[in-house]
Amino acid sequence: MTTRRARRTTRAALAAALAGALAACSAPGGGAADAGASADSVVIGVATEPDTLNPLLGYGKDGNSKIFDGLLARGADMRLKPALAKALPRITDGGRTYTYTLRDGVTFSDGEPLTADDVVYTYKTVLDDRTNNPAKSELDAIEDVRARGEHQVVFRLKYPYAAFAARTVLPIVPEHIAGRQNPNTGSFSTEPVGTGPYVLAGWSKGEKLTFKANPHYWGGEPEVKKLTVAIIADDDVRATRLRSGDLDGAVLPPNLAAGFRDDDGKKTYEATSYDVRVVTLPTANEVTGDRAIRRALDLAVDREAMVEKILDGAGRPAYGPLPLDDPFYAKGIDRPRDLERAKKILDRAGWKAGKDGIRAKDGRRAAFTLYYPAGDKVRQDHALAYASDAKQAGIDVTVESAGWEVIEPRMKHDAVLAGFGSTGDPDFGLYTMLHSSLAGDGFNNMARYDNPAVDKALETGRRSQDRADRKAAYDTLQRELVKDPGYTFLTHIDHLYVLADRWRDLTTQVEPHEHGFASGPWWNIEDWRPKK
Amino acid sequence: MGRLVARRALHAVPVLLVVTFGVFAVAAASPFDPVKAYAGTAALGADQETLDRLRENLGVDRPFTARWWDWLTGAVTGDLGHSAVMRQPVAEVIGERLVWSTLLCAVAFTAAVLLGTLLGVLAARRPGSPTDRTVTSLAYTLEAAPVFWIALLAIWLFALKLDVLPAGGLTDTASEQVTAQQVLRHVLLPAGVLAVSQLPWFTLYVRQGVGDALAEDPVRGARARGLAERTVLLGHALRSGLLPVLTLIGSRVPELITGALLVETVFSWPGIAAATVTAATAVDFPLLAALTTLATAAVLAGNLLADLLYGLTDPRVKLSEM
């Protein structure tokens, strides 16, 4: 009797559990499917979210900020084009004065008109030492910025700076709002107001940002009315949510993007980049500072194999800091792997192989440590491949992983698998990476590279206004880097994006090292047109 | 009871003081650099001058004791300070997130206690039976499984394979309003995972407690009087067997908070967890101190709750004597 009753209870419990499970099944799982079949709303997933939406603190300094516009902007071909300025700047005084005339009738999303004072306020505040902008040094060339009337802004520079115009993609903020707050702690960071194609509708930190089209945008109201950017750090979870239909598009690593190749409703976009993986060879280290070792390493690494094996083909071998398709790339510096020549160079320089196959010279073993930031799979793979290539030439590379707080104090003596890449102008990435005056200055010139010919080329490239002169200077620089490779350049990484195929003729830009929602096919989402 | 609560609240003051002081001390000794955390990826390209300027502006080089005192005097007057890394006032950070973390934890905890009790009683009813063995071994397995692993598995099964529940977020990514219906659907998976991670403790405690109680004199007496098995089990054995579980409720709160931290991260749940991780790695003193105070308060409240429940259910314990 008791057992029977107990059994009945069990059965009832089981039935209840089953019913619950069934109910869960019939719950609208389709939230997924109807997430955004229409073309005027887009949901994308990216790995990182901006720290702040305040341009005064560094947001959107390279353009495509959605909420704001700079004086200039960049097209799909990376050429500068006018945005808040009516035309490209007038450059006078031998490259030291840049004059911009503002576009007429531009208003901020709160209805107030844009004036030259807003531009001056933005630049002055970024340059203020009290403003916590980590990228302030990018504007170091500015000596003074002034408004001339309501519609003109004049920049005076400390020295002629050819690449300056490319810095003026910096977003402009309204003085009448941001000027009333402390730029570091004010609410403008989370409640921004700009002139851009979108206005911020909501920001749930760590989860998502939502944007609404700005109906009064000076470039015409965007056809995509709603943009949602979901922040999903984990690659697998992002791919899962893309597959379930919760997302329309996402940035994905090559192996996960491959899973969408046969999906008819989705298209994969492969954006080339300046994002280079490179091994720093510290000058202060007696092994990595030796030119023969550097050249041997440069010849011994198999860049093509790295692209094939590590990047699944989504990348290109890096023969120097600039990618193959950059207009400033020096033709003819690409070189195949040549292990025999690497060995010959080492032999000639007196690095003789010991019993264990590792070379030595004057009692010093050809050995050094290579650090990579812990958790970065792509860099780890590069570091291991690099070590195994080096071993074949008789150089012993010990690969270790660590956090940046461990790596930083060791950068002077140990090699680091680093990532670099700034778009816009060769000066931006190269000067800070190679100029001897910046050796060991924070994260600038991490290898403490010191080559007078390179220094000279960097200065010519920075100051000359003549494009042919600049091209010649950067050619010299790239050839010098082949002769004395203080960094071993390995690969330029392509960024992969998968996106629902509902819009026409989407493009990608050549992308920098960082890629959040400012890059990818949605870099110009305000110009998207739906497929009919 | 009121006196007990008041006395405990008074005791909490020195505890909180020591805890916040400890947090400031530990954070000051941590190898993480608040300046780098503030600048984010921009730091990896910044020159020394920029880093030094930020260091000075953020005031991170002041001795931690001075910063603790500033924070404390501010907090007493209701000003929790500004979180440098979130670029928001601390009160705003917590205000936005606390409700979602509380919801997640409350749902998970309730589910874990109820389900744990149910399974524990089922298992204890006949020790050694197939039900008992299944429940017990399942409980041990779950106890050993890391919660983030369960979370990823749950996403794979329910979101990817079966496509019945959303894989993350508070609402569907595309939806603008936070509606109750959406939140309900989205809370199921993270709360379920969190509940499952807490479940084995309650199951095993209840099983043990009820099992022991079944062998005690009052239960034998009840059986001898011919009371129905159900009355014996639920009215006598469960009642005395639940006592140790009440202690468990108090002591599981810290575990619950840690579990919530991981679960929130995996499910992009916009709660306190993400903020805690960021605050810790960024050595963001004001935010870290506020969150730690909050967690400490939760643990103290959990213990108090356990004691109160004990006093209410166990006639041998008098609240006035505690």
UniProtKB/TrEMBL annotation, chain A:
Q: Which PROSITE patterns match?
A: PROKAR_LIPOPROTEIN
Q: Does the keyword Nucleotide-binding apply?
A: no
Residue ranges annotated for the Solute-binding protein family domain, each copy included: 80-437
For this UniProt record, the keywords arranged alphabetically read as follows:
Signal, Transport
**Extent of the signal sequence:** 1-32
For this protein, the record's Pfam families field holds:
SBP_bac_5 (PF00496)
Superkingdom classification of source: Bacteria
UniProt xrefs under InterPro entries: Peptide/Ni-bd (IPR030678), SBP_5 (IPR039424), SBP_5_dom (IPR000914)
The transmembrane segments are none
Record bears the keyword Zinc: no
By sequence similarity, the record places it as follows: Belongs to the bacterial solute-binding protein 5 family.
Protein name, entry field: ABC transporter substrate-binding protein
UniProt lineage: Bacteria, Bacillati, Actinomycetota, Actinomycetes, Kitasatosporales
TrEMBL record, chain B:
Pfam families to which the protein is assigned, alphabetical: BPD_transp_1 (PF00528), BPD_transp_1_N (PF19300)
Q: Give membrane topology per the record.
A: Multi-pass membrane protein
Instruction: Report the superkingdom from the record.
Output: Bacteria
Q: Which residues form a coiled coil?
A: none
Q: Which UniProt keywords apply?
A: Cell membrane, Membrane, Transmembrane, Transmembrane helix, Transport
Q: Which SUPFAM superfamilies match?
A: MetI-like (SSF161098)
* Localisation: Cell membrane
Q: Give the residue spans that cross the bilayer.
A: 12-32, 98-123, 135-159
The segment(s) forming the ABC transmembrane type-1 domain are 98-306
Query: What does the similarity note say?
Result: Belongs to the binding-protein-dependent transport system permease family.
* Protein name stated in the entry: ABC transporter permease
Write down the species.
Streptomyces composti
